[in-house]
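Today's session is about reading a structure prediction critically. Students often jump straight to the picture, but the first step is always the sequence itself: look for stretches that repeat, for charged clusters, for runs of hydrophobic residues. Only then move on to the predicted structure, which in these notes is written as discrete structure tokens rather than atom positions. Here is the chain we will use throughout the hour.
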Amino acid sequence: MASALQAAYDARIREGSIQPDPAQAAALQRLVRLEADLAADPPRTGLKKLFHKPEGQRGVYLVGPVGRGKSMLMDLFFETSKETSKRRTHFHVFMGEIHRLIDAWRKGDAAARKAKFGQHKGDDPIPPVADVVAGQARLLCFDEFQVTDIADAMILGRLFSALFARGVTLVATSNRLPDELYKNGINRQLFTPFIELLKSKVDVVTLAGPHDYRLDRIRAAGAWFSPIDPDNDRSFDALWREMLGPEEESGETLEVLGRKVHFPHAAGGLLRASFASLCAVALGPNDYVAIAERFHTVFLDGVPTLGSNRREEARRLVILIDELYEARTHLIVLADAEPTKLYPEGDGAFEFERTASRLQEMRSADWLEDR
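Below is the predicted structure for this chain, in token form.
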């Protein structure tokens, strides 16, 4: 049987939307294998479903630096897969849903549990939650698989044991090898069994070709748009939409020291936020650290020309840029002026020179290459 995935990939090369890439081609073969495995084991129905223990297929875990085509390959696999019971989402969105389901089980009475889960007995929320997830999708595709939250780390082993036991197959993209997940996390020894479980259920495929295709878009468009006028606004917005691709702005909520900070314009490792939302409100260093850790690319729009009358906002911008700089984050800016002219004079202008220098560096070709 011919591979629909291989045919779709080859078609994209012919039309010029992607370039031939040996690393991608090697990873693609693992997905072609999974495509065939799923096709050879269609879902059971009727009595076959009742008496057959569900078994998932060996999945694929694509790992490598940003911009190597991991998400593109997974999306192409998802689009061409004949599997009808499938779901593709960002991992952090999925885990948010899991925590809400767990909360609903724990707080629900028998009637509420029955309505939401189709069952109501027991104190352990993992089995009924796994039933819900497995009932919705036999194939789960996760983008940006990462574990930084202790609440996630402590349930992943039991959750995925239950999902795999229910015949769920996993495909994921990540910037971290399984052995590096939740690295240096609190009580990591309780998390390591999940790592071994994960490696037993997926082929770990490293996609680390030398070419960063995401940077091609930034290089072509530029990383600094000024002044703020209709043309630059359109160009900034077009680059954001191009970087998003088929993704939707699912939004992201970060928990910082017990507070929740919501960003409506986020998808995976991409964040778009205004200067006003980041620097004109009471955010501090811990918030900016969380942003730098969570997102690999930040689009910052509406940066005004600053002066001593906006000293506090400028101070927050300085801290934000410092954290993004240290994290080697890609920064795309729509601003009133060039970096060296953002704080041209007045009290605080001298101190801002270091930030202007960092902003200049972060828009350079060398910075873009060294991430």
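Discussion point for the tutorial: DSSP finds 16 helices and twelve strands in the chain.
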